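[recover] target loaded
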């Protein structure tokens, strides 16, 4: 009888192989008082561990093949940058001096402080970036404790074709083990937005994460099946099950080959309607990778990563250089730069800390936060304007709620344009400015907002949460998070119609845009621009290229007129079966 363990599906594919169980959890650390005369020696020990961590990552990076997607290399570079940043190189030393404690404990305190910042974030994607802190900290802790650096090239070929079972793995380990030929990855921790998940998708590696206590239930070298699509790990599969999964593997290989043929083909429906597919990126290096997958440009460049994991806020020149790298990587394709989207419950750089909001999701965040602090917002606006002189740049405002707020932003942008002109600094005077529609008020007021904007982009993650009053990460209520709720579909439809009336394009950059299950529904609602995580782009294009808009529009119109939403899932299923 087979044993089935469930987790979170983060990639596609089926793998059949033997389990290799990895036990290399975070080292245990405790606090020790260091006599003051020995403190400098302790600091030197920390710096040596830091240098060793840098060298280890550089060695791994050198081994990455030249044809590896840029976003994977970017993960390694991000970890190297963290090691050089003051939050890792200096802050723990300050703690050691202040508390007269050992290096391991100082690093743990610094790690805890950084993770608290990420835990308080509203954006679930950014919240998972605390994984990077942990991966870097664990590497330094191992060096401090003289622990053996896990090597994955000395297992006498055990990893080739194996299914790796671990608590968690860092991006560096994932890349190394992929090079050694692992067939799939199963972890006890992690979520759909973790870097492990993103890497697995980018590498085409079947992966299931969040399989609680998986190492307790499985044996080393035990035969396993990993069904990544359904988030299942099967031990002791019977002959019939094995035959089924071998057939699935063959079908999957054919499917991937067909998807790759779409890279350079346009996204056009069967009845001749062109659809624009854009990418969501967070690092300049991601932009080039998105172009290789056929993205027409960047529909969402998150700027938050420039501001995190540091003691000082990036200045105008630093931001400009980062935006310029994206513009250059896109070689003439458009890039949409979203202004800072963080909340008031966090303190960045030297900005004075404000009292904690009772409900940060409804408090001072995103554009509200930027308008509250023009001294910090203006440099970002100037940096975006300056980057617009080098290519087609659009600026996008997050979490707009009304016309008055929008007019404030537009006045500030005009003031910065005049200032740049007086200083003789180049910029595109016609740079487009758009707004994210991610709260119900903005969707309902879309006609008024559209009169002042050049484009809309619908952020479905927040739009659904705010409309249904549901935190999708709260396990007590996330069953209510429903993209097919009639209120959500009506708000999306309202926004698209308002954009059409005003003659401005409407894109969608929330997760719904990158989920092929909703592609035909969104086409039927009138959406013609989709922006998504690059890994899902080819699958969405496949659905678009196999769709007919005339039929979809009729079906969706009937859905919107329906008095009951109970049948919506079956109606979407029926649309997805249409040829």
């Amino acid at each position: 009888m087979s044993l089935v363990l469930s987790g979170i599906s983060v990639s596609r594919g089926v793998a059949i192989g033997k389990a290799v169980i990895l036990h290399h959890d975070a080292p245990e650390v405790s606090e020790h008082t260091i006599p003051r005369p020995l403190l400098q020696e302790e600091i030197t020990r920390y710096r040596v561990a830091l240098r060793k961590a840098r060298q280890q990552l550089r060695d791994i990076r050198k081994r990455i093949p030249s044809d590896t997607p840029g976003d994977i290399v970017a993960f390694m570079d991000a970890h190297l940058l963290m090691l050089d940043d003051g939050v890792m190189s200096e802050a723990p030393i300050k703690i050691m001096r202040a508390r007269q404690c050992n290096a391991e404990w100082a690093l743990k305190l610094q790690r805890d402080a950084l993770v608290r910042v990420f835990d308080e974030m509203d954006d679930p994607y950014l919240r998972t970036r605390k994984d990077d802190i942990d991966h870097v900290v664990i590497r330094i802790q191992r060096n401090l404790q003289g622990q053996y650096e896990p090597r994955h090239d000395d297992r006498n070929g055990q990893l080739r074709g194996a299914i790796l079972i671990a608590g968690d793995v860092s991006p560096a380990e994932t890349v190394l083990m992929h090079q050694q030929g692992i067939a799939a990855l199963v972890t006890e921790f992690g979520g759909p937005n973790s870097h492990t998940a993103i890497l697995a998708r980018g590498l085409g590696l079947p992966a299931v994460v969040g399989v609680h206590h998986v190492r307790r239930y499985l044996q080393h070298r035990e035969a396993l099946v990993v069904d990544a699509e359904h988030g299942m790990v099967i031990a002791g599969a019977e002959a019939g099950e094995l035959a089924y999964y071998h057939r699935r593997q063959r079908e999957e290989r054919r499917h991937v080959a067909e998807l790759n043929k779409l890279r350079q083909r346009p996204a056009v429906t069967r009845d001749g309607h062109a659809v624009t597919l854009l990418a969501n990126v967070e690092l300049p290096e991601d932009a080039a990778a998105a172009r290789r997958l056929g993205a027409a440009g960047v529909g969402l460049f998150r700027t938050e990563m420039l501001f995190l994991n540091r003691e000082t806020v990036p200045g105008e020149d630093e931001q400009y250089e980062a935006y310029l790298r994206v513009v250059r990587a896109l070689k003439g394709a458009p890039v949409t730069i979203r202004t800072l989207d963080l909340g008031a419950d966090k303190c960045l750089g030297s900005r004075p800390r404000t009292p904690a909001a009772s409900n940060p999701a409804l408090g001072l965040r995103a554009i509200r936060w930027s308008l509250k602090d023009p001294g910090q917002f203006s440099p970002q606006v100037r940096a975006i304007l300056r980057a617009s002189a080098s290519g087609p740049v659009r600026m996008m405002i997050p979490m707009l709620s009304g016309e008055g707020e929008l007019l404030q932003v537009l006045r500030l942008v005009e003031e910065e344009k005049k200032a740049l002109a007086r200083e003789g600094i180049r910029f595109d005077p016609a740079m487009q400015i758009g707004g994210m529609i991610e709260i119900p008020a903005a969707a309902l007021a879309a006609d008024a907002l559209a009169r002042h904007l050049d484009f809309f982009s619908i952020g479905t993650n927040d739009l659904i949460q705010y409309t249904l009053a549901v935190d999708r990460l709260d396990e007590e209520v996330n069953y209510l998070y429903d993209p097919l709720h009639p209120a959500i579909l009506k708000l999306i439809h309202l926004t698209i119609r308002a954009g059409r009336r005003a003659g401005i394009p409407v894109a969608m950059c929330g997760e719904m845009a990158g989920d092929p299950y909703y592609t035909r529904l969104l086409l039927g609602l009138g959406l013609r621009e989709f922006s998504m995580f690059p890994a899902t782009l080819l699958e969405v294009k496949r659905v678009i290229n196999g769709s007919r808009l005339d039929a979809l529009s009729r079906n969706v119109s009937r859905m919107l007129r329906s008095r009951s939403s109970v049948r919506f899932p079956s109606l979407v299923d029926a649309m997805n079966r249409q040829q």
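[recover] notes: The CA atoms of residues 431 and 557 lie 35 Å apart.
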